[in-house]
Amino acid sequence: MTKIYRDNFGVPHIEANKYSEAVYSIAYVHCEDDFYTIQQWLLASRKQSGHIDDWDAPYIDFICEFLEIEKYANCLKKNISEEYLDLIQSYC
Question: Do 21 and 89 touch, CB atoms closer than 8 A?
Fold first, then answer.
């Protein structure tokens, strides 16, 4: 069971039994606090930034495609431990 509470300053505190639960809770709190940025990065990772921002987003999509970010990310993924990949999946 996970418990999230905020102190008087609005800082979130998370109590969890497992790392994966804590990571999921961090993602939840992050979305509560700054959903716009999460949405921008999600769309950028899919090369669809132009759907939310007409000015800078096409450049971000172009750079991601030009530098083949997805290809390099998949190559680096092979070097990451399964435990860490599970934590990343918990955040997503």
Answer: no
pLDDT digits (tens, 9 = 90+) for 32-91: 999 988 888 888 878 787 777 667 777 888 888 888 888 888 899 889 998 888 888 888
Angle between helices 69-77 and 57-66 (to 10 degrees): 60
Question: In three state form, how does the secondary structure of the chain look?
Answer: CCEEEECCCCCEEEECCCHHHHHHHHHHHHHHHHHHHHHHHHHHHCCCHHHCCCCCHHHHHHHHHHCCHHHHHHHHHCCCCHHHHHHHHHHC
